[in-house]
Amino acid sequence: MKKILITGGAGFIGSHVVRQFVTKYPTYHIYNLDALTYAGNLDNLRDVESSPNYTFIKADITDEQLINKLFQEYQFDAVIHLAAESHVDRSITDPLAFVRTNVLGTVNLLQAFKSLWQNQWGGKRFYHISTDEVYGALGEVGLFTETTAYDPNSPYSASKASSDHFVRAYGETYGMPYVVSNCSNNYGPNHFPEKLIPLCIHNIINKKPLPIYGDGKYTRDWLFVIDHARAIDDVFHRGGNAETYNIGGFNEWQNIDLVKELCKQMDTVLGRAVGESEQLITFIQDRPGHDLRYAIDATKINKELGWAPSVTFEEGLAKTIEWYMNNQDWLDNVTSGAYADYYHEQYK
Ligand code: NAD
Ligand code: DAU
Q1: Which of 18, 82, 90, 103 gets mutated to test ligand 1 (max ligand atoms within 8 A of its CB)?
Q2: Whole-model pTM over 0.85
Q3: Nearest atom (ligand 2) to Cα of 255
Q4: On the chain, which terminus has fewer CB atoms closer than 10 Å, C or N?
């Protein structure tokens, strides 16, 4: 049985990747290693937690000794690495946390994988999940391709860029088989409500202000999280060694238009008057170093691996709203406690 370590599997994207692999590949054993930070939540995986091919390991990727011990004990054949500090705003207030987890934690995993296999790399693979933010900001035209130069602007994107470089360096220096993918903004079920879409869903439900940074004309390329999990499956199994794949939704929205669309759909679902939730929109002080626009050219993964998004944005947003409406206990749980302090500090 192939032993696959998925890091960060209790988080937003990681939980969808764990579900995809546990349910689709009964001949793999999936080990989900996660420190359960504020963003990790085992409630995301209740439906698969008793599967015979699934094991949860609570561990911090920055703990060098423990990570080495776990690699020796379980003898993982492959790693799909998603564990990270993932929120740009938090990276602005606490950059060192991002260096520790995203840079040091990644190098710990690389080193443990290398020590385990001692360069006997047959059938092994390290798959690093990265972000389009490493490429910096686009102007009003153009797309990020796999050869766009790295130009990160936030502590978060600088830490992810650094981890990408370390993965490549282990490939070049030690011959470690690896693959990297850089994806655009995900949305969907289980998204922590510090990020724009779930934060606005939560606030619309509770009739609270919808905070829009600056003039709201910043643009992101949105992809439904299950389509990202499908892409990760494709890249893991069929992506070329030492290759990078850009993954995106071909779906650009200015923040203000996206939030207005969300308000429209939520008004219908909540039985509110047309235009009611839009009145909650509040323009606030901009994010420092705010990247104007991200947009992915996903031609390579489409041509080489045949991947394309399977749901339209309209369908994906409707499914997302439906999930949050049906899982208000999940929202209540993750917004109690420390979230209130974070929210107050960030939006005061
Ligand atoms: P998330 O914040 O929802 O989840 C991160 C997970 O990592 C959590 O379960 C957390 O407990 C775990 N974690 C954090 N620090 C850890 C540590 N030191 N040791 C072990 N586990 C730790 O993040 P996400 O949005 O699901 O993103 C997952 C990955 O995908 C990240 O690497 C991120 O950079 C990348 N990514 C995210 C997006 C997006 O739109 N969310 C887009 C492209 C790439
Ligand atoms: O592009 C991929 C990246 O997308 C991932 O690597 C990150 O992990 C993920 O968090 C996301 O980063 P963004 O900064 O783009 O996502 P966020 O949801 O924080 O913000 C989306 C846009 O909305 C951005 O332009 C900032 C803006 N925004 C965000 C928040 C939280 C607001 O206007 N108001 C807000 O309150």
Answers
A1: 82
A2: yes
A3: 23
A4: C
